[in-house]
Amino acid sequence: MRLPLRLVPVVFFAAFLGGDAQQPVARYTGFISDYTRITAVNRNTTRYVSPRISEYSKFIVDPVQSRLSGGVLSPSDRDEALRYMRATCKRAVTQAGYSVTDEAGQGVARFRFALTDIAQSVWWEKLHPVSRATGTGTGGAAMEGELIDSVTGEQLAAVVRSSVPDKLKQMQNLFYGEARKHDVLPLDNSTLLRFLTPRPSPTAGKTQFEYSGAIAGIPAAAAPSIIGRSFRVEAQIDVPEGGAQGAIAAEGGRFGGYALIVGTPRRDGGRPRPALIFNLLGMRQITWEDPELAPGAHTIVFDFKYDGPGFGKGGTGTLTVDGVAAATKAIEHTTPVMFPEDESFDVGMDTRTGVPIAEYRYESPFRFTGTIKRLSYQLGDRMAVQPK
């Protein structure tokens, strides 16, 4: 637990007389005359108490000293805090049944301590008369102190302790307080599970899809989903004499997706060539491509074997043009859950944002200037594991 600032001297004095502590140990500042005899009471407190302490019933309470870093408090605030600490400590002595005196002598111990750290913003709260009277608010301070014989200077007790507040705990309490106030409890982390729960869909149970021509803006729920499974895409196209370019099929966009295109790479220009581009969450682009595509009829196939089961697993893809394998690559990861929900599935173009983030970048809608006679998808079984 945290100790309010007004209680620090009370429990600090009590520590000399056998009390315990709950706060992190303060740093050693050199204020105490001898640190060699103090030992850890627990992970929070170091203390030394002489068996002779029971021989003393009167105490001199010296003015509290400051070992605060510069700028923690203004001089006037610091002086008021030190006076307040001393007065509170005197009250703690008398409330514990002992006497406060200003004269040294037999059976009299001198109580000296230093303020070594303080929660500045809390100090103002504690200084306010209302807060001081009620004990409201949080906060605290770190201190070092010792009891010495008022005549011989023998060390009778020493303690180093802190009640500087636990900031993390404060923030947690603040968060849950606001959460209760605004009725957002209980918190729910089942978003992914609910998102992946099967719902009625025009594509439910379908593994074969076929398109032709140009179609834009098909929502993901009505599109062939290639996520978490093996799949095969086949495009039968005609390229005119002047050449062709554009997106044959695309889903997703700048922050994740895929596109089967005929395009020109930025690195060397040249004639448009077929390519399958995979954009992994906007962080990496993987491209399968063929050198070039001459005018005439062509069949482009991309066959992907998924390495599941599991979310976001990798796999191996092969791009084939007219029955000849053009490129085979293995990738370590694929999109685990979904493509951006503000994008769509398009045939014969790529609307909204383009899929490529490096090579083959283009301006949407990047309409295909050839002819798509037939575009087909063959989907394997879903291999992404449903969360428990």
What does this 3D model show about the protein?
It is a single chain. The protein has 388 residues and is α+β, with helices and mostly antiparallel strands. The chain has two domains: 5-181, no CATH class; 207-379, Jelly Rolls, CATH 2.60.120. The protein is built from six helices and 20 strands. Strands 1, 2, 3, 4, 5, 6, 7 and 8 form an eight-stranded mixed β-sheet that branches. It is rod-shaped and about 115 Å long.
Overall shape: it is: rod-shaped
Sheet with most strands: 8 strands, mixed
Overall strand count:
20
The percentage of residues in β strands lies in 25-35%
Portion of residues within helices: 10-25%
Mean pLDDT: 83
Secondary-structure-based class equals alpha+beta
Cα(first) to Cα(last) distance is: 37 Å
What's the domain count?
2
* Elements, N to C (H/E): HEEEEHEEHHEEHHEEEEEEEEEEEE
Summarize the structure.
By secondary structure, this protein is α+β, with helices and mostly antiparallel strands.
Could you name the key traits of this structure?
single chain, 388 residues, alpha+beta, Jelly Rolls, eight-stranded mixed sheet, six-stranded antiparallel sheet, 6 helices, 20 strands
Task: Provide the fold topology.
Blueprint: H1 8-16, E1 39-42, E2 45-49, E3 58-61, E4 65-66, H2 75-95, E5 99-100, E6 108-118, H3 120-127, H4 129-134, E7 141-149, E8 155-162, H5 167-181, H6 191-196, E9 208-211, E10 215-218, E11 231-239, E12 246-253, E13 256-263, E14 273-280, E15 284-289, E16 296-306, E17 315-321, E18 324-331, E19 345-347, E20 371-379
Helix pairs in contact: 1-2
